[in-house]
Amino acid sequence: VQLQASGGGLVQAGGSLRLSCAASGRTLSSSRMGWFRQAPGKDREFVASISVSGGSTAYVDSVKGRFTISRDNAKNTVYLQMHSLKPEDTAVYYCAKLRSSGRQVDYWGQGTLVTVSS
Question: What is the pLDDT of residues 25-37, one digit of tens each?
Answer without folding.
Answer: 888 889 999 999 9
